[in-house]
Write a structure and sequence with these properties.
alpha+beta, six-stranded antiparallel β-sheet, 28% strand, 321 residues, 5 helices
Length: 321
């Protein structure tokens, strides 16, 4: 798999040369959107139907923690829904949790707090603004640069497994594509169903993800998910399908692995967003993330920098022991 990081116009041309939009959902409505048929529910991940399996729980097509509260699915049974929450979704949630606090991304229980087990120090978003509570004797969780009016917040991610994050993104794409396309992803579905990530019959060496951070107050103020499908007359040897998730300040772009439609060395093209062309707060900052590892990542520190107009005593607290 080769990755091309090229100019915006070249990226747009590459996309047009090789892909057509397959499915897009802009979640900018309060109305519930249901995928599938309420009177003919079939799980596309275990291929079972009622009454063999239950469909009593609300299954979100993409997780609630990426600010999805209304794109729902009849394609996922209760058993698979519970399993995916445990085996893959929790890993992506833990990976992004510190950033969701700063960006005010609301999940099932609102905007998450940033804290580490066993410590009292924490970062919360309150109605009056960001509240940082630091305790003596614990690790430093913030630094203030008064001259440049910036605050750098420091958080420890909960333990996560990188490949589980890629599976989580892949599962989102598999949920929204047409049912007729699932035959091209039978191995992919088996792969995301694995409960033990380090015991797999599939060896995928290059699970790279284009990730971007777009500056400004919630530039993607509603969640968008899009799958692109390779043209029959495509020019480059590109993956059969690619997926874009955009919400808050963030985008994730992946290709759908192990498709029966893919052969040989593939070229992964990144998808431009409107903010690549114009954004008053600055251009998106891209990273190429590698989610190939099956090993647990523990105690990973992340830093987040914010500008401020003023800091009040009650917003940053150092309680006495």
């Amino acid at each position: 798999m080769t990755k091309n990081i090229i100019s915006i116009n070249e990226r747009m041309q590459k996309l047009e040369n090789n892909y057509v939009p397959h499915k897009t959902f802009h979640l900018n409505t309060k109305e519930k959107i249901f995928l599938g048929k309420e009177n003919d529910k079939k799980c596309r991940f275990c291929k079972k139907k009622e009454p063999e399996v239950g469909f009593n729980n609300i299954a979100h097509a993409i997780p609630e923690f990426v600010n999805n509260h209304n794109l729902l699915s009849y394609y996922e049974c209760d058993s698979c829904n519970s399993k995916f929450a445990r085996t893959i979704e929790t890993h992506m949630g833990d990976y992004m949790n510190p950033f969701h606090t700063i960006s005010q991304v609301r999940g099932k229980k609102g905007v998450p707090s940033v804290k580490k087990g066993g410590e009292k120090s924490r970062i919360d978003l309150k109605a009056e603004g960001l509240k940082v509570e630091a305790h003596d004797g614990e690790r430093e969780i913030f630094e203030i640069d008064e001259e440049n009016k910036t605050i750098t917040l420091k958080a420890i991610r909960a333990t996560y497994i990188p490949i589980a994050i890629y599976k989580c993104l892949t599962k989102m794409a598999l949920t929204i594509i047409d049912e007729s396309e699932l035959i091209n992803f039978e191995n992919t579905i088996e792969w995301i169903n694995e409960e033990e990530h380090d015991k797999s019959r599939f060896e995928i060496a290059n699970l790279k993800c284009f990730y971007s951070f777009t500056p400004g107050p919630l530039p993607h103020d509603f969640t968008t998910c899009t799958v692109y499908k390779r043209k029959d007359n495509h020019i480059d040897n590109v993956p059969y399908m690619i997926f874009l998730l955009a919400y808050g300040n963030y985008t994730f772009q992946i290709y759908l692995p192990i498709s029966s439609k893919d052969k040989g060395e593939l070229t992964f093209i990144s998808i431009p967003t409107p903010f690549d062309f114009k954004n008053e707060f600055g251009a998106p900052k891209y990273k190429l993330l590698d989610f190939s590892s099956k090993e647990k990542v523990k105690n990973e520190e992340v830093t987040m920098q914010m500008k401020f107009e003023s800091i009040e005593d009650e917003e940053i607290i150092k309680p006495e022991e």
